[in-house]
Amino acid sequence: MNDASFALAFTLARRELRGSLGRFRVFLIALTLGVTAIGAVGSIADAMRAGISANSRALFGGDIEASSTQREVPVELREEMAGRGTVSSLIDMRAMLASEKDGQPIRRLTGLKAVDDNWPLIGRPVLDPPVPLAQALARKDGRPGIVASAGVLRILGLEVGDIARLGMTDVHIGAILISEPDQNLGFGAFAPRVIIHRDFLNETGLLAPGALLTYRERLRLKTPGDDMDVLETLRQSPGNTLVRLRHHREGSAGFESFLSRTETFLTLVSLTALLIGGLGVSTAVRAWLGSRMPVLATLKCLGAPASLIFRVYFLQVLILTVLGIAIGLVLAILAPFAAQILLGDRIAVPIAAGIYPVPLVAAAAYGTLTSIAFSLWPLGKARDVNPSQLFRTLIAAPTGRPRGIYLAGIVMATLGLAVLTGWITTSPVLAGAFILGVLASLGLLALVGEAVLRLANHLPVPSHTPLRLALAALVRPGNATRGVIITFGLGLAVLVAVALSEHSMRSQIGDRLEEDAPAWFFIDIQPDQRQPFLDIAAAHVPRDHVMMTPLVRGRITALAGVPAEEIDAPPSEAWILRGDRGLTWMGPPPDGARIVKGEWWDDDYTGPLQASMDDEALEAFGLRIGDTVSINIAGRDMVATITSSRAIEWQNFGLNFVFILSPGMIEQAPHNWVATIRTDNRETEAAIDRDVAARLPNVSSISVREAAETAARILGLVSTAIQITAGITLIAGFAVLAGTVAASEARRIQSSIILKVLGATRPVILLSYILEYALLGLLTALVAVVIGTAASWGMIKGFLDTDFVFAPQLAAGVALGGVAATVLLGLIGATRTLGRKPGPVLREEST
Hints:
By secondary structure, the chain is of the alpha+beta class. The chain has four domains: 1-58 and 254-425, no CATH class; 72-241, no CATH class; 427-519 and 703-847, no CATH class; 542-677, no CATH class. The chain is built from 24 helices and 21 strands. Helix 2 (25-54) packs antiparallel against helix 11 (357-383), helix 16 packs antiparallel against helix 20 and helix 21 packs across helix 23. The longest helix is centred in the C-terminal third of the chain and has 40 residues, at 704-743. The protein is elongated and about 95 Å long. The two termini are 41 Å apart. The model has no long low-confidence stretch (mean pLDDT 78).
């Protein structure tokens, strides 16, 4: 293309667009929505990451942390850390906080943090009333002070100055804990927090042997810039045995993994909205070309080459694309600032509002490639027709297949979208599944559209006039049947998939809770408390409703002889190698265990240590039966041979362990017991908890119902984001559907005028429109339910590896909503058509 022809094409394109932007409303709305959704999701996620990174020292509580479970960090390592800066010594554990309300004892499990005088190293806690922390934690009337989250105090009916029971001692409430500087960003952040001074922890009786606690030594460096050198030095320290050393940037690894997975899913939903927008782009371009037939014919007759015509209208598409992308990027840029205002006080994650170029560039690239991919087909078809054909088809754009170069351009743009999807999801499998799913959905919707047209052509002519007119409208020239089914069907399918997926996940929690979940988990039961605990339980429930399992903490140090730190762990199983794991031993296999590979040891086995491993983890790490797992328990290294693997249902609320060890030598390790109790009676639940609290105050209880509510609350946060994104997809579908209806308005006006002249009344014509769009909506909704159900099933089974629960009422509700929306939008377009009087239109046609 030379400069002169480009300048001419640009001049013509610019003049053609004057006063015509209104014709491209659907184009701009659909493209803007998709670009905004993709850019906003990525920008908000990056703003959270930036907030975590910028505040990582404060969130972590220092520069470097050494942590050890069950045993204190070795003195040598603590002294080495103290020589590098200021050290704060903490203890984290679970504990029950109790009070009396209406004469009845009430207990709640809390995350207990015992702090020293140096805590916090960075930042400060926010208390109500705003008293110094030392004053809030000081003794009063001989009782240690605590600060606690407002939620747990409200449940226990406590206020500042009241007396509560922590373990085996009374404490007074020194203040309400509004926020703490080193708040956990993992799911532990949802647990209510209680803080006590470390000097008073012994009085509570919670430091019993085998109690599940973590010792932490946090270091604030004199010179923060030396952090990596100091970390490496500490790793070489002789006191580093069994200690986990972490840099402050590693403190939110679990949350960032969760954030990345959520971002990926939301991005895919957003990309679906953009692809639906692409259908709107195609519809708008086709309608625009149809209205410009006289101009195209005139340019051809004046000798304009076909390439010039293509350039003119392709430049128009690019100009509109740039405009739509620019609007979308502006809205995406504002998204982190809006999230900071709306969510800043609701989530523990800091949001660093700002401009993040990577998601914005990705959104712009998505928008550009989508616009090109969906506009080349109609542009290519208009390029190669001759003037006589154009003049004979002034209303409809030319049909047929465009030349190979345009098909190649469509393929290249589609491949670009696929590459972008793979890059942004960082998962070729997920990207491939998404692309194949979208293509399959579009293909199925197109086939349904074609089947509807063929069926309508071959059905007997009904005697009912509105129905006969509705069926005729489905197959008339320039009909919107395919467009409605494809565009709105894809958006509705996304909504069905999101609704069913959310229902399935929530049902998993609710159904498991009702079917086989225990009422209580009890932890930190000491060996000498095992029989007293069984006696308490026996007074309320049958013995077979109680399950007790020994628990020992250990760290996986090697798999198949490969040190844990050298293993490139699969993301889904990396948690197994992080920190200490809960382990148990058993003679016979647990009830309901399904052995997948290998064989279980004999019930009376006491030989060399063997292990049974979760089968999914075994496969993920590439292990085989006969490989070894090295475990460090209480400072002692043990090597177990993997002799079997089990299928574990992690969502069943039971006592599940990645590794179960054979009995024998392991029984001598420091351990405690965990127990579950099953009962359907709420009064029995409360009575068991009261009796355990009275006789075994160090034992912590976890209400399964409350745990399920916490899980549902976490799920609700993600669900809200997904629903908002899916809503954008549906809005894009509405916009495209409205554009499709508007594109056929000229033909509708002609047909309605002819019907009026022939004696048809407005109610008859209106009813025909209702029946037409009701049929389209019903067919679209049925296909969308099939596609959405299949997509939800694939995500639940394939990626979340849990059971899919189909909800026919929910699917039917979404389907009927789609039918209503289709009819409503059709009627909005029909009101303009029915309002036209025959006389002026016929006079206009005759001139």
